[in-house]
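Bumping with the actual sequence this time:
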Amino acid sequence: LPADAVQNSFGCGTPLAFAGVQPGQVVLDIGSGAGIDCFIAAEKVGPDGKVIGLDMTPEMIERARQNAKAAGFTNVEFRFGDAEKMPVEDASVDWVISNCVINLSPDKPAVFGEIGRILRPGGRISISDIVAQDLPEAVRQSRDAWTGCLAGAISEEAYVLGLEKAGLRDVRVTSRIVYDASQLKGLFGSSCCGAGPGQDVAALANAAAGKIWSARFEGVKPQPGSVATEVTIEPATQADLPAIEALLTEAGLPTDVTPHLVDFLVARHQGKVVGCTGLEAQGADALFRSLAVSPAYRGAGVGRRLYEALAEKARGKGVERAYLLTTTIAPLAEAWGFRLIDRDRVPAAIRETAQFQGGCCASALAMWLDLRSCSPKSCACT
């Protein structure tokens, strides 16, 4: 990475540390500065991808361009513009990243709206930013707090709500670093102008301690509901295994799929695996497991279609009763016809499966369904 970009990196996190940016994708960095996050993204997207750095200061645009030229990056471009009105086409970006910039905007809803506009369906965000809760008025009015990226911070809840109102789904905070007084003192003192006249930086830092933190936000722009008709449900193949494991990992579900792959189904859209589920049959009983749908496809009926196909597959194997464990989809499963059951009433063969024995499922609810008295269509929610 160019030394100048590294030395002039003023972020509050690492938005690309765990982001699943893939070769060939388009990434936009809001507030790209000297370009460090753009250059990291450029390595991820490769020669077939593209990175756009957006900054509102001509000096930083020129500096970033010089850094890109010096480092030999040919898949990065830097554009002058405001985050509230980005010079970027609609639905043209796979990832929006940003590192401690949006908190400085006086019109954050406009920024969030622009993010929703430029993302493609299925596009994602990975944004590190400063958030705050119950800041004293003295901090809000401090010039040093503004130049240190602090006074303009909104609450974590407001940040999530703003992104959701812009049309994003599955918005969540994946990491936090809460600042103590010593860390905040350094941030208050980071102004290029030094401390403001009459400002007691130590007092401001003490007043704000524990009320300001950096957070990393993730989310996805959903696919339109009409896309559900384009999704196909198919038997899983060995080639699908990495995609299935990735879906289950993202959903926090066990990934012990290989021994049971023959009884797994996948939802596929335009050649990509966007959902999965499977079963473990034990005679006339079966464990329904591993229902996961990519966040961009949730709410489009993909989960229901996977369930219907799995129930039909189970009947074809002579299964009469289906059981499942869940910590998240009990209302949905109930709409599909499942009912709660005490664990000790679940057949022993099902209780002995790795899913029941695993520690991650210790607090999960057990549910069951009589497949003989419930057809997939009649039990599925509409």
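The tokens above came from a reply further down the thread. The radius of gyration is 25 Å.
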